[in-house]
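> example.struct
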């Protein structure tokens, strides 16, 4: 299965059932907009296909995309400690 076999709409549905993907995708969407998240997905799918990467399942695609999103968030210097269950203090 190629990453491009999964549409952006399918990715959004998958994020509802995958906590790690949901967290990273939600962060990008809230901070930068849905168009940025879709651009990230398009870039991931295109690059994966160009390099001939194949995946066993959608879950594997989601895992790899989550890793890529987290690296992008780190690159942006945004909340590098974004983890499930972490608390944010607005008063620190």
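> example.seq
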């Amino acid at each position: 299965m190629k990453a491009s076999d999964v549409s952006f709409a399918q990715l959004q549905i998958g994020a509802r059932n995958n906590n790690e993907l949901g967290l990273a995708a939600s962060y990008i969407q809230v901070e930068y907009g849905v168009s940025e998240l879709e651009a990230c997905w398009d870039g991931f799918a295109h690059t994966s296909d160009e390099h001939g990467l194949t995946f066993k399942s959608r879950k594997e695609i989601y895992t790899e995309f989550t890793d890529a999103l987290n690296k992008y968030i780190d690159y942006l210097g945004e909340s590098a400690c974004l983890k499930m269950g972490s608390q944010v203090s607005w008063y620190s």
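> remarks
The chain has four helices and no strands.
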